[in-house]
Amino acid sequence: MALFERILEIILPVFIIVAIGYIYMRVRGEQGRADLSVLNKVTMDVLSPLLIFTALASKDFDIVNSGYLILAGALISLGSGLLAWPFARLVGYDVRSFIPPMIFNNGGNMGLPLAVLAFGASALPAAVALFLAGLLIFFSVCIKIVEAGRRDIVHTSFLKIMISPNMISMVLGIFFSAIRLSVPAPLFDAMKMLGDTCIPIMLFGLGMRMIDVSFKSWHIGLAGAVACPVTGLIVAWLLDGLLPLDAVQRGQMYLFAALPPGILCYMVAEQYNQEPEKVASIVLLGNLCALVFVPIGLWIGLKPG
After folding, report:
1. What are the backbone angles phi and psi of residue 155, rounded to the nearest 5°?
2. pTM to 2 decimals?
3. Disulfide engineering: 195 pairs with which of 50, 52, 121, 287, CB 3.0-4.6 Å?
């Protein structure tokens, strides 16, 4: 019962903020879409890069000690895609639509606040590193999957991806951490205060996007919503015991594995016109199903190994 109560304490604040964002969007109507556009721009260009830099450059982050956890995140992302691939081919889904949401989960909007609530503020840098590992795999693997066989599009260069604000912040954060270079305290505190606002704002924005939940493609949506966390948890179970993770890292691994598909998958599908309505169904139904699978991941991860 104590474990169940702790899981509720972890997930309820997250879903309450998502619900508030959904209600706000309902009330604002079409004007809310303009609000969301501005919110996305500020988050991606300012708040998210600051969150990434301050988390990685902080004293709490040790890239050496976090190495196995980051490896686990990368293997979960890739392994989920590999496990889901034969299923997609068997039922006739286009792998360019189905596989990227299996590989890239919602380690940003949902994973970061859940990690902080479950394991404390000191767990944030490692959660950010997990998210960034997934982000790198998304842009290096998932984009290539989406672009495969498409001659009607301009293929994205890896250089363009690496000079984005988030990637630059990642490189700088790791550099500052590796050489133990400190930012002057007043500047660092200001950057951290702004970066920390990114977490509730991402959750609020996720709730606003939930207004677009559609059941037109519910078959593939439900299949993806279940396949993403199930394949992730299978890979995590296989890794458990193989990698030398401490109790908190083990919990973070299982939480990461249980997360739903990431919103970025829909944004890319829309950009490439790769069955965006089906990908949207996978992503949005997946985030609804997180009410079931995230508690399962936390239950496994919080239990003594």
Report:
1. -70, 140
2. 0.86
3. 50
